[in-house]
Write a structure and sequence with these properties.
Helix 1 crosses helix 2. The protein folds into 3 domains: about 55 residues, Roll (Structural Genomics Hypothetical 15.5 Kd Protein In mrcA-pckA Intergenic Region, Chain A); about 90 residues, Pseudouridine synthase I, catalytic domain, N-terminal subdomain (Alpha-Beta Plaits); about 80 residues, Alpha-L RNA-binding motif (Alpha-Beta Plaits), CATH 3.30.70.1560. It starts with a strand and ends with a helix. The strands form 4 sheets. Strands 7, 8, 9, 10, 13, 14, 15 and 16 form an 8-stranded mixed beta sheet that branches. It has a 4-stranded antiparallel beta sheet with strand order 3-2-5-6, with no helix packed on it. The chain has a two-stranded antiparallel sheet with strand order 1-4. By secondary structure, the protein is α+β, with helices and mostly antiparallel strands. It is elongated. Helices cover about 20% and strands about 30% of the residues. The mean pLDDT is about 95.
Length: about 240
């Protein structure tokens, strides 16, 4: 037996949290009956429908995208903007992004239909490392760097210590390399703001060891078996 929301996540319908919302909204039926949150199913025998369409478990697919700036990290956009799925020409599986990048931020983005692994990768307990390069305004001094390394007070609490170093100095800007493992909304931008250096441009260059050096913005590839195993090892999956 398997919890319904976990099964829906494994099938690539939605993340487990969003699958719970689908169930609560009455959009999921099991053997013709409207499902309730917390119910369990036998995947081999029970008929599961979402909005009247049959749900089945797909083979797991793992896609690495070099997300371009100005593309939205969502499956659908009500404003008609380009989404990350629009970049995945040739991917027939129904995948969704693991975490999110702001619209103006490019770089490493993983998409998959493996809901269980996706949940682990974004769960704070696994402390998945994420590395960013950010051009910020002003000349960053040692005091500001140490603040980032110690953790910065934000309106939703103090951030965990970051690995921070200066990569390059320009006349009016500084290029920072920041490694964090939390998933607070717009965390890097807010951290830099808090120490007096607003972000101009930013990209994510590493997510749990994945990099996109071989991909131009907008290009994608499937993960290798070794890369998938590394993600599973990092999350005890």
């Amino acid at each position: 037996m398997e919890r319904l929301q976990k099964y829906l996540a494994h099938c690539g319908v939605a993340s487990r949290r969003n699958a719970e919302k689908l169930i609560e909204a009455g959009r999921v039926t099991v053997n013709g009956e409207v499902a309730t949150l917390g119910c369990t199913i036998e995947p081999r025998n029970d008929l599961v429908l979402v909005d009247g369409e049959r749900v089945g478990r797909e083979a797991p697919v793992y896609v690495l995208l070099n997300k371009p700036p100005d593309v939205v990290t969502t499956v659908k956009d009500t404003h008609g903007r380009e989404t990350v799925l629009d970049c995945l020409d040739g991917v027939s599986a129904r995948v969704y992004p693991v975490g999110r990048l702001d619209m103006d931020v490019g770089g490493v983005l993983l998409l998959t239909n493996d809901g269980e692994l996706a949940n682990r990768l974004i769960h704070p307990s696994y402390q998945i490392p994420k590395v960013y390069l950010a051009w910020v305004w002003g000349r960053v001094d040692d005091e500001a760097l140490q603040q980032l390394r110690d953790g910065v007070e934000l309106e939703d609490g103090k951030t965990a210590p970051a690995q921070a170093r200066i990569v390059e100095r320009g006349k009016r800007q500084t290029l920072l390399r920041l490694q964090i493992h939390e998933g607070k909304k717009r965390e890097v931008k807010r951290m830099c703001d808090a120490v007096g250096h607003r972000v101009d441009t930013m990209s994510r260059i590493v997510f749990c060891g994945l990099q996109v050096r071989d991909l131009d913005p907008g290009e994608w590839r499937y993960l290798t078996d070794e890369e998938v195993q590394a993600l599973r090892d990092a999350t005890n999956a």
